[in-house]
Design goal:
The complex is a heterodimer of chains A (about 110) and B (about 120). Chain A has no helices and 11 strands. In chain A, a hairpin with a 2-residue loop joins strand 6 and strand 7. With about 120 residues, chain B is an all-beta fold. In chain B, a hairpin with a 2-residue loop joins strand 7 and strand 8. The radius of gyration of chain B is 13 Å and the shape is globular. Classes of the chains: A mainly beta (about 110), B mainly beta (about 120). At the A-B interface, strand 4, strand 5, strand 9 and strand 10 of A face strand 5 and strand 10 of B.
Amino acid sequence: GQQVMQIPQYQHVQEGEDFTTYCNSSTTLSNIQWYKQRPGGHPVFLIQLVKSGEVKKQKRLTFQFGEAKKNSSLHITATQTTDVGTYFCAGQETSGSRLTFGEGTQLTVNP
Amino acid sequence: DTAVSQTPKYLVTQMGNDKSIKCEQNLGHDTMYWYKQDSKKFLKIMFSYNNKELIINETVPNRFSPKSPDKAHLNLHINSLELGDSAVYFCASSQGGGVGHQPQHFGDGTRLSIL
């Protein structure tokens, strides 16, 4: 079955440093979604990427979808303590299939 | 107004007991899900219902039984609770039954602790 792998599992940064999490799928995806879960909270949808090579930005967050539609990344510029949480990617093989979540990257930001 | 609401928020119970978690969504979505999140934060899909019909049933012990009385509700009943059932259980909903690219909306989670 489809597998979605995410690295790193944990990342500790100093406030102001950049952060990147990577997501790789064993199969070609029709779309990929990103979610953020704050400590003690629930996953919250951030963004969806659909097109090959797509790049989307949300303030300090940059999301990329690979040309082959098998990988994706989330980059945060100049992290802040409010960025703390677990970031999940979730991929869908075809438009009618289930969403498969990656294992998540737990980000901690030291002030 | 809470979009996806789960009750209870916390559940502490003895091994061997039977318990239920309720979930309701007021977003008008037609697909609902149950996820289990362990201590390492891994999110595992357990079940999915589309318009009250079971469409995803992962390898979950048959002690877990979902019930969807209507498309706005998806409850989870667990029989004979075991220590390994301790986790956070999230309910979620989305529009479209997995067709298309609709995001999922999660409830606040139910923190289940087995003593």
